[in-house]
Amino acid sequence: MRRWAGRTNEPLFWGLFGGGGMVSVFLMPVLIVIFAFLVPFGVFGGAEGTYETMHGVLTNWFVALVLFVVLALVLWHAAHRFFHSLHDLKIHPPEIVRVVIYGVALLAPAIGYSLFLVEAATS
Amino acid sequence: MTGAPTSSPTGPRPEDTRPAPARTLDVGRLAQADRVARRREEGTGAGDGTVSQRNPYRPTMKRTWFLATKEYRAYFLREGAAVVVGLFVLNLMLGMVSIAAGLDSWTWWVDLQRNPFVLVLNVLALAAAVLHTVSWDQLTPSIIKVQRGTRFLADGWIIAQQVLLLVIFAAVMVAWLGGAWS
């Protein structure tokens, strides 16, 4: 207990934020162009074609784990910036708001991956 | 000025009534110092060397401060953009679960991306992601310093490395979805 007295958890929060920012640089523009525009508008053969290509690879538990962890970093980055923007807007929320914001960034990938495993096992 | 003779301009001032510096912060004493200083200023004007009149700076910051200048707007746009990218990440996780659940749910998710509301969010997300990439590319050379001998690697190489990663990732994704390995 005493070892942690007067110390801050900010390096941990900031380190994950920096990691998310770093991977977001080269991942997000590509992922958004492909999955928000090219795939829905049929460039890669619509839903059937992309399902054929991707289903086998993505349902591997390890590939999915890596993808969810990387996406979790980006989500953490977003949560971190969102929380600190509240301060910039002169909103100084109670501690519970911080817990909820970072909690979404932690729980959404965890729940997503759990659902993913369940769906992959039953389909 | 009183008529006291002063041989040297740097010598002690006979009329100096400033109190000795307080050892601790004493509000009453500071107020007294203010009064003395103001009286001296009114009496002798500039050139007295008095700088002790307290005029504390009280910053005022409106809630809309970030609209004030171009730099503030750019800063706030960058911070806010992350939230839109975060929404797309949630969307993408939903897509991951959909593709695991089977072709029907994957078709539902792909069709969902053509919903006008989702489409607008996706366009905003793309703009936000590009803004993030550009702003991050601009700041990383200040943080990542690679030493080569006595010099540092030029900024352009740090940026080029990130652009290269983006190009490689895009090429791999397009090749994969284009059926290069199937």
TrEMBL record, chain A:
<dbReference type="GO" id="GO:0006106">
    <property type="term" value="P:fumarate metabolic process"/>
</dbReference>
<keyword id="KW-0472">Membrane</keyword>
<dbReference type="InterPro" id="IPR003418">
    <property type="entry name" value="Fumarate_red_D"/>
</dbReference>
<keyword id="KW-1003">Cell membrane</keyword>
<feature type="transmembrane region" description="Helical">
    <location>
        <begin position="99"/>
        <end position="118"/>
    </location>
</feature>
<keyword id="KW-0812">Transmembrane</keyword>
<dbReference type="Pfam" id="PF02313">
    <property type="entry name" value="Fumarate_red_D"/>
</dbReference>
<dbReference type="InterPro" id="IPR034804">
    <property type="entry name" value="SQR/QFR_C/D"/>
</dbReference>
<dbReference type="GO" id="GO:0016020">
    <property type="term" value="C:membrane"/>
</dbReference>
<keyword id="KW-1133">Transmembrane helix</keyword>
<protein>
    <submittedName>
        <fullName>Fumarate reductase subunit D</fullName>
    </submittedName>
</protein>
<feature type="transmembrane region" description="Helical">
    <location>
        <begin position="12"/>
        <end position="38"/>
    </location>
</feature>
<feature type="transmembrane region" description="Helical">
    <location>
        <begin position="58"/>
        <end position="78"/>
    </location>
</feature>
Automatic annotation (TrEMBL), chain B:
<feature type="transmembrane region" description="Helical">
    <location>
        <begin position="157"/>
        <end position="177"/>
    </location>
</feature>
<feature type="region of interest" description="Disordered">
    <location>
        <begin position="1"/>
        <end position="56"/>
    </location>
</feature>
<feature type="transmembrane region" description="Helical">
    <location>
        <begin position="115"/>
        <end position="136"/>
    </location>
</feature>
<dbReference type="GO" id="GO:0016020">
    <property type="term" value="C:membrane"/>
</dbReference>
<dbReference type="InterPro" id="IPR003510">
    <property type="entry name" value="Fumarate_red_C"/>
</dbReference>
<protein>
    <recommendedName>
        <fullName>Fumarate reductase subunit C</fullName>
    </recommendedName>
</protein>
<keyword id="KW-1133">Transmembrane helix</keyword>
<keyword id="KW-0472">Membrane</keyword>
<feature type="compositionally biased region" description="Polar residues">
    <location>
        <begin position="1"/>
        <end position="10"/>
    </location>
</feature>
<dbReference type="Pfam" id="PF02300">
    <property type="entry name" value="Fumarate_red_C"/>
</dbReference>
<dbReference type="InterPro" id="IPR034804">
    <property type="entry name" value="SQR/QFR_C/D"/>
</dbReference>
<keyword id="KW-1003">Cell membrane</keyword>
<keyword id="KW-0812">Transmembrane</keyword>
<feature type="transmembrane region" description="Helical">
    <location>
        <begin position="80"/>
        <end position="103"/>
    </location>
</feature>
